[in-house]
Structures are given as structure tokens and as C-alpha cells.
Amino acid sequence: VVAVSLVSPLGLGCAAYAMLGVVPRERVILWLIIAGLAHATAIALGLIYLRRPRSPAENGRWIHLFTVRALLTGASWGASTVIMWPTDRFEYQAVLVMFLVGFSTISTLTNSALRRCVVASALGTWVPAIWRMATSSDPLHQTIAIMLLTFTVIILASMLRFSRQLLEATRWRFENAELAENLQIEQSRVDAANRSKSRFLAAASHDLRQPVHALGFFLQTLRLTAERPQPERAKLIEVADRKSTRLNSSHQ
Fold this sequence. Notes:
The chain is built from eight helices and no strands. By secondary structure, the protein is mostly helical.
């Protein structure tokens, strides 16, 4: 949007230059001042928006500001049909309307994400022009007014539908991103649970192997001391029995 606003002065200059031969110079300068101020304000607002940190709570205020911005720039172009209208030169009137069509189309495309901006820009651009032609006594101008009104309605309907589709696509994108983030969180939880299970099984296996190894050691020792005196054998059997009991309690 800011890039388009930076190109707008070129369009303003071309429109003013085209009207210089048929419209008094002071009227052309007056319109350039009005349109220039409106576009300078729009550019400044866009640069502030890009450079200033924003919080989600400020979105509503920025939407209102951009709606006013679209209305101002649209009205500055619409004012050309009031200030610079070449009354007796139909071909220059057609040129001026052509500039309005070009600006309106570009403005509608660049503001398509914000429906209120689309409506504000279109109203500011076309209400003065359509009123100028509709109130004329010339049937040709009245016919052109009807055509311009039809054009405006069609453009608005098309762009509002496109805006709804764009908003739906944006909402689905954020929903998909949220689902992917939740899936990643759940996957992290599953991985953490698996790691905890592995640590638990490793610790349990270590605890189970200790009495088993000790029992095997004592049984081997018992076999080797089969010929030894009875008290020493009884002591070994008692220790082996304790290890066996510990193993059974671990299984339980």
C-alpha cells in the first residue's frame, strides 16, 4: 500500500498536466494542493504503521485510521470532477474519468484485505463524479453516470467477495499453524513420556539384575562350599533367601 502511495504523485501530476490546456491554472494548482496533502498524509500514516511497534490491541484503531486514509485519497481524486471538470470538452472529461478508473482499480486491489477501506475509497472517488454527470442535462452524461454507478457496484461486489475469501484463507492459515503448533507440543509430550518410560525401565532393569546376579553368585558359592561346615552353608543359604525375597517383592 505504501509503495502504491509513493507512485500516486506521478498519477496526480499526469492528470493535472492533462487538464492544463482546458482548465484554469489556479484550479489545477488548487486540486494538486488538495490531492497532494491527502496523499502525503496517506504516505506518512503508512510509514508510521510500518516503523512503529504495534500491539494487537491497537488493530482496531489502525483499521479506523486506514479507512479515513482511503476515504481521503479517494475523495481527493473525486474532487477533480468538481474542481477541474472541463465543461465543454467531452474528450478531456473522458480522460479525467479514465484517471479515476485507474486510481479506483489500483486502490481497490491494494485495500482488498480491508473491506471498509475498499468501500471508503470507492465512495470518495465516484460519488462526486457520478453526481456531476447525473445532474447534467445531457443524456450522454446521464448514461455515463449510470455506467459508472454500475461499474462501481460491480467492482465493490467483486472485491468484497474477494476480501471475504482472503480473510477466510488467512483464518485457515492461522488455524492450521495453531494446529501444527499443538501437534508439535503433543509430540514433545509423547517424546518426553517415552524418555521417562525408558529411564524407568532402565532403572528397574538395573534394580532387578542386582539381586539376580547376587543370587547367582551366592548359589555358585554354595555349590563350591558344599563340603564346608554346616553353619557357613546355612549363612550362605540365608543370604540367598533374602536376595530371592527381594527379587520377588520387586516383581510385585
